[in-house]
Amino acid sequence: MPKKRTLPYVLLGLINDKQHLSGYQMVQEFKHEISDFWTASHSQIYPELQRMTDDGWITTVTPDTQPDANRNQTYYALTSTGHDVLLDWLREPLTQKDTDLFALKLFFIKTSDSPLLKPLLAQQLTLSQNRVTYLKSRKETVFQSQTDIDSHYGHFLTLSRGIERESNYVLWLQHLLETL
Questions:
Q1: Phi and psi torsions of 2, nearest 5°
Q2: Running DSSP on this structure, what letter comes out for residue 36?
Q3: Which residues contact 10 (CB under 8 A, 6 or more apart)?
Q4: What would the DSSP string read from start to end of 82-116?
Q5: FRET partner for 28 with CA separation of 20 to 30 A, picked from 17, 83, 107, 171?
Q6: Nearest to 177 by CA among 133, 125, 129
Q7: Which helix (H) or strand (E) is 21 found in, with range?
Q8: Would you tell me how many other CB atoms lie within 10 Å of the CB of residue 134?
Q9: Hey, is 61 helix, strand or coil?
């Protein structure tokens, strides 16, 4: 089964955040904001915008609605369908296969009292706790003796770092949930 495309949801989130954006502005958002955790190229963005327009998720708006708009650029706005699609995606549960979506979804939550925030954090917490349990069991299985550690020391270090990183992630998520 092909992997679900993520780019249209990211573009919907960007447009939703700014109300109207040109393709060029979206490319800039990827370069300056989203590139810390997700990438997309110019050649991916423009065809996706056309598909989203064809699907009725976004519509083009004239530069007259943008006082500082470049009249040579096409600006996009969400349709009500596009808004519903974005909300459905944000509500869609995370799975172990798509935990990289957590940061993207989190990026599009605007306020600390958003009804989307706590469920998203709780989902990621459960996934991360499960990941820690799995990594610890792998460490116990693969490295039962000092000889096992000595003969695959790099693997041992990598696995130990993975456990530490994921355990810290669990602590961060727990702290966030406690403070909300």
A1: -70, 150
A2: G
A3: 34, 38, 40, 104
A4: HHHHHHHHHHSPP-GGGTTHHHHHHHT---TT-TT
A5: 83
A6: 125
A7: strand 21-22
A8: 14
A9: strand
Which tokens hold the place of 63? 């530069």
User: Cβ(40)–Cβ(7) under 8 Å?
Assistant: yes
Burial of 113: CB neighbours in 10 Å, binned 0-12, 13-18, 19+: exposed
Tokens of 149: 């550690």
Q: What is the pLDDT of residues 19-35, one digit of tens each?
A: 889 998 998 998 888 88
For residue 50, give the amino acid letter. Answer: Q
Closest CA to 99 of 73, 71, 68, 121: 121
Token duo for residue 81: 């369908």
Question: Which tokens go with 41?
Answer: 């190229």
pLDDT in tens, 43-99: 889 999 999 999 999 999 976 655 555 667 889 999 999 999 999 999 999 988 876
Q: Is 12 exposed, middle or buried (0-12, 13-18, 19+ CB in 10 A)?
A: buried
Q: What is the DSSP string of 111-164?
A: -TT-TTHHHHHHHHHHHHHHHHHHHHHHHHHH--SHHHHHHTHHHHHHHHHHHH
Q: Check if the beta carbon of residue 109 is closer than 8 Å to that of residue 117.
A: yes
